[in-house]
Protein backbone atom coordinates (compact mmCIF):
# COMPACT_ATOMS: atom_id res chain seq x y z
CA UNK A 1 0.00 0.00 0.00
CA UNK A 2 1.10 3.56 -0.63
CA UNK A 3 1.23 6.12 2.17
CA UNK A 4 -1.91 7.75 0.81
CA UNK A 5 -3.77 4.44 0.75
CA UNK A 6 -2.77 3.70 4.35
CA UNK A 7 -3.97 7.08 5.56
CA UNK A 8 -7.26 6.94 3.63
CA UNK A 9 -8.03 3.46 4.92
CA UNK A 10 -7.45 4.64 8.50
CA UNK A 11 -9.68 7.64 7.89
CA UNK A 12 -12.44 5.37 6.54
CA UNK A 13 -12.23 3.05 9.55
CA UNK A 14 -12.62 5.96 11.97
CA UNK A 15 -15.46 7.43 9.91
CA UNK A 16 -17.34 4.11 10.05
CA UNK A 17 -16.76 4.01 13.80
CA UNK A 18 -18.39 7.48 14.02
CA UNK A 19 -15.35 9.10 15.63
CA UNK A 20 -16.01 12.84 15.91
CA UNK A 21 -13.00 14.00 13.86
CA UNK A 22 -11.85 11.01 11.79
CA UNK A 23 -9.58 12.91 9.39
CA UNK A 24 -7.78 14.78 12.17
CA UNK A 25 -7.39 11.72 14.37
CA UNK A 26 -6.20 9.56 11.48
CA UNK A 27 -3.61 12.18 10.54
CA UNK A 28 -2.34 12.45 14.13
CA UNK A 29 -1.92 8.69 14.35
CA UNK A 30 -0.42 8.57 10.85
CA UNK A 31 2.25 11.13 11.80
CA UNK A 32 2.89 9.30 15.08
CA UNK A 33 3.45 5.95 13.36
CA UNK A 34 4.80 6.78 9.90
CA UNK A 35 6.40 10.18 10.53
CA UNK A 36 4.59 12.22 7.86
CA UNK A 37 2.31 15.19 8.49
CA UNK A 38 -0.28 16.40 5.96
CA UNK A 39 2.32 18.27 3.90
CA UNK A 40 4.62 15.26 3.92
CA UNK A 41 1.77 13.04 2.79
CA UNK A 42 1.10 15.34 -0.16
CA UNK A 43 4.73 15.18 -1.21
CA UNK A 44 5.31 11.45 -0.60
CA UNK A 45 1.83 9.96 -0.84
CA UNK A 46 2.73 7.63 -3.71
CA UNK A 47 5.67 6.11 -1.82
CA UNK A 48 5.24 2.55 -0.56
CA UNK A 49 4.49 2.53 3.16
CA UNK A 50 6.66 0.61 5.61
CA UNK A 51 4.80 -2.59 6.52
CA UNK A 52 5.65 -2.63 10.23
CA UNK A 53 4.83 1.04 10.66
CA UNK A 54 1.58 0.56 8.75
CA UNK A 55 0.63 -2.40 10.92
CA UNK A 56 1.21 -0.27 14.01
CA UNK A 57 -0.87 2.51 12.47
CA UNK A 58 -3.85 0.21 11.93
CA UNK A 59 -3.46 -1.27 15.40
CA UNK A 60 -3.82 2.20 16.89
CA UNK A 61 -6.62 3.13 14.49
CA UNK A 62 -8.61 0.14 15.75
CA UNK A 63 -7.98 1.25 19.34
CA UNK A 64 -9.28 4.71 18.49
CA UNK A 65 -12.31 3.21 16.73
CA UNK A 66 -13.13 1.33 19.93
CA UNK A 67 -13.12 4.56 21.94
CA UNK A 68 -9.61 4.84 23.34
CA UNK A 69 -8.83 8.57 23.53
CA UNK A 70 -6.48 9.92 20.90
CA UNK A 71 -4.38 11.58 23.61
CA UNK A 72 -3.76 8.25 25.34
CA UNK A 73 -2.79 6.67 22.03
CA UNK A 74 -0.25 9.39 21.28
CA UNK A 75 0.98 9.49 24.88
CA UNK A 76 1.14 13.28 25.02
CA UNK A 77 -0.95 16.34 24.27
CA UNK A 78 -0.34 20.05 23.92
CA UNK A 79 -1.95 22.69 26.12
CA UNK A 80 -1.25 26.38 25.51
CA UNK A 81 1.89 25.47 23.60
CA UNK A 82 3.22 23.16 26.32
CA UNK A 83 3.59 19.38 25.93
CA UNK A 84 2.11 17.10 28.59
CA UNK A 85 2.59 13.37 28.92
CA UNK A 86 -0.78 11.67 29.42
CA UNK A 87 -2.11 8.15 29.62
CA UNK A 88 -4.60 5.87 31.32
CA UNK A 89 -5.32 7.12 34.82
CA UNK A 90 -5.16 10.88 34.20
CA UNK A 91 -7.52 13.58 32.97
CA UNK A 92 -6.76 14.74 29.44
CA UNK A 93 -5.86 18.44 28.99
CA UNK A 94 -8.74 20.28 27.30
CA UNK A 95 -8.98 23.59 25.52
CA UNK A 96 -11.83 24.71 27.80
CA UNK A 97 -9.33 25.00 30.65
CA UNK A 98 -7.41 27.70 28.79
CA UNK A 99 -10.11 30.16 29.89
CA UNK A 100 -9.32 29.42 33.54
CA UNK A 101 -5.55 29.54 33.11
CA UNK A 102 -5.69 32.79 31.11
CA UNK A 103 -7.74 34.44 33.85
CA UNK A 104 -5.29 33.38 36.57
CA UNK A 105 -2.35 34.62 34.49
CA UNK A 106 -4.08 38.00 34.17
CA UNK A 107 -4.76 38.20 37.91
CA UNK A 108 -1.09 37.69 38.80
CA UNK A 109 0.42 39.58 35.88
CA UNK A 110 1.74 42.36 38.14
CA UNK A 111 2.46 40.15 41.17
CA UNK A 112 6.10 39.10 40.81
CA UNK A 113 6.32 36.57 43.61
CA UNK A 114 2.80 35.22 43.61
CA UNK A 115 1.90 32.05 45.47
CA UNK A 116 -0.56 29.68 43.78
CA UNK A 117 -2.31 26.53 44.99
CA UNK A 118 -3.70 24.14 42.36
CA UNK A 119 -6.19 21.65 43.82
CA UNK A 120 -6.97 18.41 41.93
CA UNK A 121 -3.89 19.05 39.82
CA UNK A 122 -3.98 15.84 37.77
CA UNK A 123 -0.99 15.59 35.39
CA UNK A 124 -0.17 19.24 36.04
CA UNK A 125 -1.93 20.94 33.14
CA UNK A 126 -2.82 24.07 35.11
CA UNK A 127 0.04 24.14 37.62
CA UNK A 128 2.84 23.64 35.09
CA UNK A 129 1.38 26.12 32.61
CA UNK A 130 1.16 28.76 35.33
CA UNK A 131 4.69 27.96 36.50
CA UNK A 132 6.03 28.22 32.94
CA UNK A 133 4.33 31.53 32.18
CA UNK A 134 5.04 33.07 35.60
CA UNK A 135 8.56 31.96 36.46
CA UNK A 136 8.70 34.05 39.66
CA UNK A 137 5.55 32.44 41.05
CA UNK A 138 5.60 29.58 43.57
CA UNK A 139 3.09 26.92 42.55
CA UNK A 140 1.89 24.10 44.80
CA UNK A 141 0.08 21.25 43.03
CA UNK A 142 -2.18 19.03 45.16
CA UNK A 143 -3.30 15.64 43.83
CA UNK A 144 -4.49 12.41 45.45
CA UNK A 145 -4.07 9.86 42.67
CA UNK A 146 -0.67 8.16 42.68
CA UNK A 147 -0.92 7.62 38.91
CA UNK A 148 -1.64 11.29 38.29
CA UNK A 149 1.18 12.29 40.63
CA UNK A 150 3.61 10.20 38.59
CA UNK A 151 2.52 11.99 35.43
CA UNK A 152 2.69 15.31 37.26
CA UNK A 153 6.32 14.70 38.22
CA UNK A 154 7.15 13.45 34.72
CA UNK A 155 5.64 16.62 33.22
CA UNK A 156 7.53 18.81 35.68
CA UNK A 157 10.74 17.14 34.52
CA UNK A 158 9.73 17.27 30.85
CA UNK A 159 9.08 21.00 31.00
CA UNK A 160 12.02 21.79 33.31
CA UNK A 161 9.93 23.84 35.77
CA UNK A 162 11.60 24.42 39.12
CA UNK A 163 9.01 26.68 40.76
CA UNK A 164 6.41 23.98 41.41
CA UNK A 165 5.92 21.65 44.38
CA UNK A 166 3.78 18.47 43.96
CA UNK A 167 1.92 17.37 47.10
CA UNK A 168 -0.30 14.37 47.84
CA UNK A 169 -3.47 15.35 49.70
CA UNK A 170 -7.16 14.50 49.46
CA UNK A 171 -9.00 17.74 48.65
CA UNK A 172 -12.18 16.41 50.24
CA UNK A 173 -10.70 15.42 53.59
CA UNK A 174 -7.11 16.60 54.11
CA UNK A 175 -7.31 20.39 54.42
CA UNK A 176 -6.52 20.21 58.14
CA UNK A 177 -3.26 18.39 57.32
CA UNK A 178 -2.11 21.11 54.93
CA UNK A 179 0.71 23.24 56.36
CA UNK A 180 1.01 26.07 53.83
CA UNK A 181 -0.91 29.35 53.69
CA UNK A 182 -1.08 32.92 52.40
CA UNK A 183 -1.83 32.04 48.78
CA UNK A 184 -2.63 34.74 46.23
CA UNK A 185 -4.62 32.28 44.12
CA UNK A 186 -6.35 28.96 44.66
CA UNK A 187 -7.18 27.42 41.30
CA UNK A 188 -8.96 24.17 40.51
CA UNK A 189 -10.52 22.17 37.74
CA UNK A 190 -12.11 19.58 40.03
CA UNK A 191 -14.31 16.60 39.17
CA UNK A 192 -17.73 18.11 38.42
CA UNK A 193 -19.88 15.49 36.72
CA UNK A 194 -22.82 14.20 38.76
CA UNK A 195 -22.42 10.51 39.61
CA UNK A 196 -25.69 9.58 37.89
CA UNK A 197 -24.49 11.16 34.63
CA UNK A 198 -21.22 9.26 34.34
CA UNK A 199 -22.70 6.34 32.42
CA UNK A 200 -24.09 8.65 29.75
CA UNK A 201 -20.73 10.20 28.87
CA UNK A 202 -19.06 9.67 25.51
CA UNK A 203 -17.12 6.42 25.35
CA UNK A 204 -13.86 8.38 24.99
CA UNK A 205 -14.52 10.23 28.26
CA UNK A 206 -15.43 6.98 30.01
CA UNK A 207 -11.85 5.85 29.39
CA UNK A 208 -10.65 8.60 31.71
CA UNK A 209 -10.46 7.85 35.46
CA UNK A 210 -13.78 8.11 37.28
CA UNK A 211 -11.87 9.66 40.18
CA UNK A 212 -11.13 12.69 37.97
CA UNK A 213 -14.73 13.01 36.77
CA UNK A 214 -17.09 12.16 39.63
CA UNK A 215 -18.28 15.28 41.45
CA UNK A 216 -20.77 13.54 43.72
CA UNK A 217 -24.55 13.36 43.59
CA UNK A 218 -25.00 16.86 42.15
CA UNK A 219 -21.52 17.42 40.73
CA UNK A 220 -20.75 20.14 43.28
CA UNK A 221 -19.05 18.13 46.04
CA UNK A 222 -15.56 19.48 45.40
CA UNK A 223 -16.67 23.10 45.13
CA UNK A 224 -18.22 22.87 48.60
CA UNK A 225 -15.09 21.28 50.05
CA UNK A 226 -12.82 23.88 48.47
CA UNK A 227 -14.96 26.83 49.58
CA UNK A 228 -15.50 25.53 53.11
CA UNK A 229 -12.08 24.03 53.87
CA UNK A 230 -9.42 25.51 51.59
CA UNK A 231 -10.19 29.22 51.25
CA UNK A 232 -8.70 29.71 54.72
CA UNK A 233 -5.32 29.35 53.00
CA UNK A 234 -5.98 32.46 50.86
CA UNK A 235 -4.71 35.76 52.15
CA UNK A 236 -7.09 38.72 52.27
CA UNK A 237 -7.55 39.91 48.72
CA UNK A 238 -6.71 36.50 47.28
CA UNK A 239 -8.81 34.81 44.59
CA UNK A 240 -10.48 31.44 44.19
CA UNK A 241 -10.69 30.48 40.50
CA UNK A 242 -12.43 27.32 39.28
CA UNK A 243 -13.61 25.68 36.10
CA UNK A 244 -17.24 24.51 36.14
CA UNK A 245 -19.45 22.23 34.10
CA UNK A 246 -22.32 23.34 31.88
CA UNK A 247 -25.12 24.87 33.95
CA UNK A 248 -23.15 24.89 37.23
CA UNK A 249 -21.89 28.47 37.39
CA UNK A 250 -24.76 29.96 39.39
CA UNK A 251 -24.78 27.11 41.90
CA UNK A 252 -21.02 27.40 42.38
CA UNK A 253 -21.33 31.17 42.79
CA UNK A 254 -23.92 30.59 45.54
CA UNK A 255 -21.55 28.15 47.29
CA UNK A 256 -18.79 30.77 47.20
CA UNK A 257 -21.12 33.49 48.54
CA UNK A 258 -22.20 31.24 51.41
CA UNK A 259 -18.51 30.75 52.27
CA UNK A 260 -18.06 34.52 52.64
CA UNK A 261 -16.40 35.21 49.31
CA UNK A 262 -17.41 38.18 47.19
CA UNK A 263 -16.62 40.01 43.94
CA UNK A 264 -17.89 36.95 42.10
CA UNK A 265 -17.35 36.86 38.35
CA UNK A 266 -18.51 34.30 35.78
CA UNK A 267 -16.50 33.98 32.57
CA UNK A 268 -17.70 32.35 29.37
CA UNK A 269 -15.66 30.19 27.03
CA UNK A 270 -15.43 30.69 23.26
CA UNK A 271 -18.69 28.76 22.82
CA UNK A 272 -20.53 31.18 25.11
CA UNK A 273 -20.79 28.65 27.95
CA UNK A 274 -20.27 29.80 31.53
CA UNK A 275 -16.97 28.03 32.17
CA UNK A 276 -15.10 29.79 34.99
CA UNK A 277 -16.16 31.23 38.35
CA UNK A 278 -13.90 33.70 40.19
CA UNK A 279 -14.39 34.88 43.78
CA UNK A 280 -12.36 37.13 46.08
CA UNK A 281 -11.57 36.83 49.77
CA UNK A 282 -12.07 40.40 51.04
Helix-strand layout with pairing:
Elements: H1 3-16, H2 22-34, H3 38-44, H4 51-65, H5 70-74, E1 76-79, E2 82-85, H6 97-107, E3 115-119, H7 125-133, E4 138-143, H8 146-158, E5 164-168, E6 183-188, H9 203-206, H10 221-230, E7 234-243, H11 249-258, E8 262-268, E9 274-280
Parallel strand pairs: 3-4, 3-6, 4-5, 6-7
Antiparallel strand pairs: 1-2, 7-9, 8-9
Describe the structure.
This protein has helices at 3-16, 22-34, 38-44, 51-65, 70-74, 97-107, 125-133, 146-158, 203-206, 221-230, 249-258, and strands at residues 76-79, 82-85, 115-119, 138-143, 164-168, 183-188, 234-243, 262-268, 274-280. By secondary structure, the chain is of the alpha/beta class. It has a 7-stranded mixed sheet with strand order 5-4-3-6-7-9-8, sandwiched between helices. Strands 1-2 form a two-stranded antiparallel sheet. α8 (146-158) links the parallel β4 and β5 (164-168). The chain is elongated, with a radius of gyration of 21 Å.
Number of strands: 9
Biggest β-sheet: count, sense, barrel?
A: 7 strands, mixed
Shape: elongated
In spatial order, strands of the major sheet run 5-4-3-6-7-9-8
Integer-rounded radius of gyration:
21 Å
Amount of beta strand: 15-25%
Elements, N to C (H/E):
HHHHHEEHEHEHEEHHEHEE
Category from helices, strands and their pairing:
alpha/beta
Keywords for this structure?
282 residues; alpha/beta; 7-stranded mixed sheet; two-stranded antiparallel ribbon; 11 helices; 9 strands
Amino acid sequence: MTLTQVYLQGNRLLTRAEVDSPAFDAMCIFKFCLGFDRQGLILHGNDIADEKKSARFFELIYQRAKGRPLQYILGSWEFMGIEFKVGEGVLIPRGDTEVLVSKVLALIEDVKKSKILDLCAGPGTIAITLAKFRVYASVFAVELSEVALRYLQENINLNAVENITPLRFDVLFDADKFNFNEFDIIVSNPPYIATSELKSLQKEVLNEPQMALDGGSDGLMFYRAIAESWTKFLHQGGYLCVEVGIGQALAVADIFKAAGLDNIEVIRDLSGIDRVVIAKKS
